[in-house]
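Listing S7. Sequence submitted for prediction.
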Amino acid sequence: MKILMLNGSCNPNGATKAGLDEMAKVFAAEGLETEILCVGPKPVRDCIGCGKCAEIGRCVFGDDPVNDFVAKAASADGFVFGTPVYYAHPAGRVLSFLDRAFYSDMWATGAAAFRHKPAAAVAVARRAGTTASWDVMNKYFGISQMLNVGSTYWNGFHARTPGDVPGDPEGLQTLRNLARNMAWLVRCLAAARAAGIPPPQTETGNMTNFVR
């Protein structure tokens, strides 16, 4: 079983990565494989709502890691999405990345890569904005029928640099408990599949516009 993790920072080895690494150690101890994909320093295009993903099965833009992430997501059993906080909300590149990843998967494959899988958002800030960022990130999971994993506090920790991360022991404890909860839920879902318990059927067909 595998947990796919997104480092939403432009810095592949910054504080966001340090937090994800703390969770990865727990996943390894629980017998789960992990992979961390970094958004990276290059520009990330925003979704333009062109609808081409429904025709070609992927986002029309192929010059950043979005399509690679969605392809890997199909075989992942759970997800952790990490974001740095600059102005009291998730980094803009993370939102552009997730807009396109979730939108293209929804229209191209019926949300098959993410649907009914556990997910958790993690935010890191020097001081403020972690809970606001966590709230924003959770909305992607809710609309995609994902299972939102919680911890013993809101999923955030405080640091400006990787060296600051050990200075927030409660934040690290929150991350470790979050990882244990996700590992448990992933195993529960695997046991359900082995017992022949199928995921719920999704009702479709209704789409109401407020102005029509």
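Caption to Listing S7: primary sequence and predicted structure tokens for the chain studied. The radius of gyration is 17 Å. The first strand starts at residue 2 and ends at 7.
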